[in-house]
Structures are given as C-alpha cells and as structure tokens.
Amino acid sequence: MIKSKIRVNSEYVIGKTDSGMFGSFLEHVGRAIYNGIYDPKHPLADSMGFRKDVAEAVKELNISVIRYPGGNFVSGYNWEDGVGPIELRPKKLELAWNSVETNMVGTDEFCTYCKKIGSEPMLAVNLGTRGPDEARQLVEYCNSRAGTKYADMRIANGYKEPHNVKYWCLGNEMDGPWQIGRKTAYEYGRVAEESAKLMKLTDPSIKLIVCGSSSNLLPTHPDWEREVLELTYDSVDYISMHSYYENANGDTPSFVASNAQMEKFIQGVLASCDFVKAKKRSNKTMMISYDEWNIWYQFSRKQDVEPWQVAPHLFEDIYSMEDAVALGGLLITMMRHCDRIKLACLAQLVNVIAPIMTDDTGAMWKQTTFYPFMHASKYGRGTVLNTITNSETYDCIHGTVPYVESLCVFGEDESITVFVCNRSEEQDCDFDIILENAEEYSPESHIVMTAADKNMSNTAANPFNVVPTSVNDINGEKGTFNVKIPSFSWNVLRFTK
Ligand code: AHR
Fold first, then answer.
1. Which residue in the list 109, 292, 322, 405 is annotated as catalytic?
2. Residue nearest to ligand 1 atom 7, measured at CA
3. Do 134 and 171 touch, CB atoms closer than 8 A?
4. Which residue's alpha carbon is at the smallest distance from atom 4 of ligand 1?
5. Which listed residue (173, 225, 246, 316) is catalytic?
6. pLDDT tens, position by position, 262-309
7. What is the DSSP secondary structure assignment for residue 83, as one 8-state letter?
8. Which of 136, 152, 214, 278 has the maximal Cβ count within 10 Å?
9. Stretch (H or E) spanning 213
C-alpha cells in the first residue's frame, strides 16, 4: 500500500480556473463533423441535421468553447465555400487529410450548433494559403451588424444576428513541416501581426490566439515562441500550445506520467513568454491557450485509408482505462497552471481522437476519457489551491514522479473537490486529506473510476464497461480525513459544508 497525503488551506491560492479551460475542438477531419455531430439521415437528427443524442452527450461535458474548423484543415480552407445555400456549396479536395470536403457544414451551422449546446465558438482563420484580408472579412461576416458587404452576406444567408465570435486563432500549427503554407517564425510572426491588426480594427472586442509550437519535440521550440511573440506581443491575448501523448512502446508507468512531459512544455512556453515580457518592459502577462491536447496514438496505430473519401474513418482511437489515468494526470497539470492557462481544448470531441463515438450502425457511446474530463469540467471550476502533497515516487522516462497526483479546487459553490490519480498498477493508496481552516466540511462522495484490466474500454456493444461509481468510504471529521484510493484509478473526492 502506498502512502500519500494532501494538505489544503483555502488561503493558499494558485488562481481561478477560467471556464475557457474546459473547451474542446471540432475539425473537418474524418467523421468528427459528418457522421459525427452532423448526420441528417440519422433518426435522431434535428431540423438542421445535427444528432440530438450526440448533442446531449456533448452537453454533459459542459464545454465552454469549441475550436473550429481546424486544425490542419483550416490552412487550406476558404470559409466562403461553407456559407450560403447548401446545394450551391462546392465539393473540394481537402489536402490536409486527403479527403473530399462537401462543405455541408460551415461557419453559420457551427455557430448555431454552439448556441444549441451552450458553448462559445473559437474560430481559426487560414494563415496557410491565405492572409490578413480573408481573416478580417471573416470577422466582419461573423461579428458586424449590417450595412457592409460581409455582414450583409451573412444576413442574406439567413443569419440576421451576428455570431459575436470572441476567440480567434491566428492560423494553426504554422511551425509544423506538415502544415499547408508552413512558415518560419519570422514569416508567421509578421503575417500574424498584420492579421491581428486588421481583425481587431474590424472588431476591437475580439481576443486573439497566436500559434506557439505544435510540440515541444520540434527543434524550433522554444525559439519559435520567443520570435513570434517579439513580433506580436502587444497585439495578441494568448499563445497556443498543442500536445498529444501515447503509449507507443508498452511503457505504462511512463505513459501515465505524460503530464510530467506536459509540465516541462508549459515551463518552456512560460519562459519564452516572460522573456519577451521582460525584453519589452511590458506590463502585460501573456496567457496560454492549450487549444489541442489529448491522448492520440498517432505514431503507433498507423492507418491505411483510401484517399479522397468523404468523412473517412480517421483517427478513431478507442481509449482504455490506462488512457483515462493518463488523461486525468494531464487535467491535473493544466488546472495547476490555471493562473496562466486560460483556454484549453480537448482535441477532439466526436469520433476523431474523441470522448464521444458513433459507429456506422448509428450507435453512440462514451469512451473512458469522457469521464475524467466531465468531472474536471463539472467540479474543477473555482479556485485552485496551492497544496502541500507528498507521495511515494517511481522512476520513468520523465524522471522521478509521484505515484499519486492530486489537486484541490475550492468550488464556486463553496464545495471542496480533491482530484486524485493513482498511477500504480499494483498498489492501492492510503490517502490522507488535511483540510486546514475547513473544519465544518464533511465528505459528500468519492467518485471512483477503475477497471479489472487496464486495457478495458467501452464499445458500442458494451458502452458501460468502464464507468465511474460513487462510494461513501471517506473516513474522518473536523478537517482530517482518510480514504483508500484503488490502484490505477481516477478519483474525485467531494466535501461540502
Ligand atoms: O487534432 C488533429 C490534428 O493534430 C490537428 O489538425 C492539428 O492541428 C494537430 O497536428
């Protein structure tokens, strides 16, 4: 049995989690949009063609913002192709994913979907094959009231009210060799700065996200962030981070500690941001939009898909209990940096490396990773406390890491939530919780997710193989509590007054 302890004092604060931290991402790739959120032939489709059962599952995740339309897709996208009468929209070769894009769903449908499910849109503009002019036209199309060309185009398309899109990404992964229209840091920094200028002149209320590195494994990181920010610091509000993790060689102890690698990446990006802040003698602190993060078996589960199909089966990773443990660690690390990470998007939302899946028969189910994200989104909103934790440790490729990761959030409703991830495959944990200056709190529930086998997952046929359960096993009183945390599990400990 491992021993671990968390000591909490509500006066020791890291920061508040912005709701934007619980965002997601929908790209025109594979079956994320078509046969994912949108399937007009499905019996549960609404009048616009969106699946109501999928929308209900999305709503359960309480997603604050959804990034769209890409991803790599956006770097070859002409937004005008996706607006206006559907029957007139062009079918196009989509070069990021070797697919055919029908443009049945575009900006107007996406913004309407966001309204239906209670999320805010975050739109990316194409700075791969296009530039500042098309970017400011899209801002006008979405956000201007009436009486000018692009606002009137939206109204003629049936959308009288502006979409009022607040968050805008200045391109996508412009450092990546795979990116359509890839640029050097200087080339990108200049075009991002000029696009930012025109976009904010069109609508000064918008918030802009400039591209950081697509991964800390690229040799250009962290110089990319430094050079891009030197060119754009005063014009942008956030710098993006993207990272994906996978268990590529069966090294489970290292994989479930992937958040240690995420931590190093965050430190690197913050160092570049704060270097530029110091160099510019600026009073502004750059915030992070972690707008792509997830588990993705992109290198170890290669697939051979026939090119030029509409909505092919792409990147439909099935997630196991092991993936849920790894994802729990990533969530804890991001929430721990809530003073600097203000936006974050789980990439992606439906079918493509996603918590929600559908299949060709029309079934829908929730993956293991659905649940830790849902818990963080539900109970992680509030003040993250700077806790004192100790846990036994182990060595892995990321260095020495604790078996048990934990984080405490003092909720907006005055509840206290402790998230706990036990990454030991063999040992349960004897976990002490000391709530200083919170003697009036008592345990409400212990939500626990674990599985008989770390490879267990949910499927269309067995959608409830691995789901959380709620138990009442937290012992103690007057600020001193103890609970058994099972081996290889994700846990949410809830306390209320
Ligand atoms: O989410 C899948 C892809 O991963 C995105 O299109 C791209 O931005 C990243 O490389």
1. 292
2. 71
3. no
4. 71
5. 173
6. 999 999 999 999 999 999 999 999 999 999 999 999 998 878 899 999
7. S
8. 214
9. none
